[in-house]
Amino acid sequence: MAETGEPSIEGFRCADCGAIMIDQPMACRACTSRTPPQAFRVGERGRIVTWSTVLRSFPGVKTPFVSAIVDLDDGLTLKGTVRGVDPESLGVGLPVSLVFDDAGGARAPDGAPYVGFHFVKAGAAE
User: What is the mean pLDDT of residues 67-92?
Assistant: First the structure.
């Protein structure tokens, strides 16, 4: 969560070589710079790299659904569900948008709500 309370995904960028990472290592994995990579808020647009239609899952998980690998415009790669699409309409490079949700209403043991995310076709309202 950002300081504003809005959900976001944070990545880390090496100031020396520009490599993007999902976590903050002690040194850059690409150039071995010892300067800690700096946090940045990841953008919410990307393109599908690959996907599959999941037909079977854990009990309670509604199927079928589309699971995809998405390269975000900022350089980070995420795996997530693509909602509201016909799998036949998907293709490599299809623009998608990141959408935050309530993780299906799941809550932590202390009652705090979880925040999840999924993707939709870019320009699709949800």
Answer: 94
Per the CB < 8 A criterion, the answer to whether 95 and 121 are in contact is yes
Classify 18 in phi/psi space as left (phi over 0), alpha (psi -120 to 50) or beta: left
Distance between CA 2 and CA 113 in Å, rounded? 15
Phi, psi at 90, each rounded to 5°: -80, 155
pTM, entire model? 0.84
Q: Is 75 exposed, middle or buried (0-12, 13-18, 19+ CB in 10 A)?
A: middle
Category of 29 on φ-ψ map: left (φ > 0), alpha (ψ -120 to 50) or beta: alpha
Q: Tell me the two tokens of residue 29.
A: 């994995």
